[in-house]
Design goal:
The chain is of the alpha+beta class. The protein has helices at 20-29, 79-85, 102-108, 115-119, 124-128, 133-176, 189-193, 208-215, 219-228, 234-243, 247-260, 264-270, 275-293, 302-308, 311-316, 337-342, 378-383, 387-390, 406-409, 429-452, 456-459, 470-483; strands at 14-15, 42-43, 53-56, 63-69, 320-330, 344-345, 350-359, 365-368, 372-373, 396-398, 415-417. Strands 5, 6, 7, 8, 9, 10 and 11 form a seven-stranded mixed beta sheet that branches. The chain has a two-stranded antiparallel ribbon with strand order 1-2. A hairpin with a 4-residue loop joins strand 6 (344-345) and strand 7 (350-359). Helix 12 packs across helix 13 (275-293). The longest helix has 44 residues, at 133-176. It is elongated. This is THAP-type domain-containing protein.
Length: 488
């Protein structure tokens, strides 16, 4: 869009400020106080002083990807100011006689900026009254010496004024032609360093299938995830400087490893770095993502549960608060014999970590327990959790038949509905019908757990180096699952 200053053909660079007080100052400066700016209206950079514009981060001190105005900057450079500052001169410039040299003629053209020049120069009438040629020549020589001194002083003054202006012009030109002057690139560190990476997330803006293959999300969802971490972005800026990988590409690397369970060597090759850097980036991001997202209360109120509850739940299980199920993730057997025994699961016949997952009727994963060894029972995990205190009196919990915890929730007036255990050879018809309805509504949690395990790092064995991060990895994958489209 064009600049909003009248008769200016520049391209809009800076939008009108949102603050009404500063916006009025802008409108007054451009002599359009009654103008109502639209969303995309703004001014070009030609109306701002060089000191009003910066492209260096005030905190991290690296080059920004675009020019930014200083806080409270007001446009101050306009054509009408230039005409007011430089009025036309009343007197014509002094013209020397023909017997002056060309150099002196050039000197005389600068008399307007040197008052001393005029005071030391005689008029043509005075020169014509001289009778003796010798006196005239000596006078010309004396005047030449004076003119040379005045010229030198004048040039020094001009250079002193022009030098800072030249610097400003060079800086502005370098910003406008960043390809020609690499010293003043308008790019941040992430743009300067990622050019050597084989994979850059910005290359997948319009490739949703490929980006979904690597991360499980499209570009818009990727940006949303990155935005939720903006309060802790300063933790990643140091890695950006040290490892030469931009913050978006650090998240790209982390999601790639979660989604595809790619080894560090392969990721190091893709992002033009080394194994240690990949491990450090992944560890930092998983830890900070887990701590940041753990501050979000994912346990919805009763009103929200009812609002998003599907009709099938409203018809058959209207008081359902959460559906519970346990899931296990295989791990490499620990070297310590005690840990090996604690993590061995007889159900999976392997060393595992176990967690309890809770989902709302609307398809949101609202609860996850900490990770425990595979030998821990479902009841023991719930006993050590705060789940009973989260429920309100009258709530109903749907659970698998292996989760027998009715007595733990009874003091809170919370009902736990599980399939009826088989005692004799057959069950009554009403019981069978009821259990089928229960199983039909419980199946949604199994689908959500399956969606969570599309992050291949959870469906493959967790390696020993990732065991300390197991709880954080699980909580991050759960939150990322909530970013996906609802299955309900």
């Amino acid at each position: 869009m064009k600049c909003s200053v009248k008769n200016c053909q520049g391209v809009r660079k800076f939008k009108f400020p949102k603050r009404m007080e500063l916006r009025k100052k802008w409108l007054k400066a451009i002599r359009r106080p009654d103008f109502v700016p639209r969303v995309g209206d703004g001014l070009c950079m030609n109306h701002f002083r060089a000191q009003d514009i910066h492209n260096i981060s005030t905190e991290a001190k690296y080059l920004l990807s675009r020019l930014t105005l200083n806080f409270g900057a007001v446009p101050s450079i306009f054509p009408w100011q230039e005409s007011a500052d430089n009025p036309p001169e009343a007197n014509e410039p002094f013209t020397a006689q023909s017997n002056f040299s060309n150099e002196n003629i050039e000197i005389e053209k600068k008399e307007a900026c040197c008052p001393e020049f005029i005071s030391t120069t005689e008029s043509p009438e005075q020169q014509s009254t001289t009778d003796a040629p010798e006196q005239q020549n000596s006078k010309f020589l004396a005047e030449e010496d004076i003119l040379q001194v005045n010229l030198q002083l004048c040039e020094e003054e001009i250079d002193a004024e022009v030098e800072p202006l030249n610097k400003s012009v060079i800086e502005l030109k370098s910003d406008m032609h960043s390809d020609e002057e690499p010293v003043y690139l308008k790019k941040s560190i992430m743009m300067q360093t990622d050019s050597c990476s084989k994979y850059n997330v910005d290359n997948y803006k319009h490739k949703p299938v490929q980006l979904n293959h690597f991360t499980g999300f499209n570009y818009q969802k990727f940006k949303t995830i990155l935005y939720t971490l903006s309060p802790v972005m300063s933790h990643f800026e140091k890695i950006e400087k040290d490892k030469k990988i931009s913050i978006p590409n650090q998240l790209f690397l982390t999601l790639w490893k979660l989604r595809r369970a790619t080894c560090n060597l392969e990721l190091a090759e893709h992002f033009s770095t080394d194994n240690e850097s990949v491990a450090e980036i992944f560890y930092t991001w998983i830890t900070i993502m887990s701590k940041t997202w753990s501050l979000i209360d994912m346990w919805p109120s009763r009103e929200l549960i009812n609002f998003y509850m599907p009709h099938t739940f409203k018809n058959h299980f209207p008081k359902t608060r959460v559906t519970l199920d346990a899931t296990e993730i295989k791990i490499d057997a620990p070297k310590n014999s005690v840990l090996k025994q604690a993590t061995f699961s007889t159900y999976k016949n392997a060393n595992t970590f176990k967690i309890i997952v809770g989902t709302t009727p609307g398809g949101l994963i609202s609860y996850t327990s900490s990770a425990y060894g595979g030998s821990t029972s479902d009841r023991q995990i719930i006993e050590r959790s705060d789940l009973p205190s989260k429920c309100d009196p009258g709530d109903v919990i749907l659970a698998d038949k292996g989760i027998m915890v009715q007595d733990l929730f009874a003091p809170y007036n919370v009902t736990v509905s599980t399939p009826t255990p088989m005692v004799s050879g057959s069950l009554p018809h009403k019981t069978v019908v009821k259990d089928r309805k229960l199983s039909r509504h419980r199946v949604h949690i199994e689908r959500l757990i399956g969606l969570m395990k599309t992050f291949t790092i959870l469906s493959k064995k967790l390696t020993r180096d990732l065991l300390p991060l197991s709880t954080d990895i699980l909580s991050v994958c759960v939150m990322l699952t909530n970013f996906k489209e609802s299955i309900m």
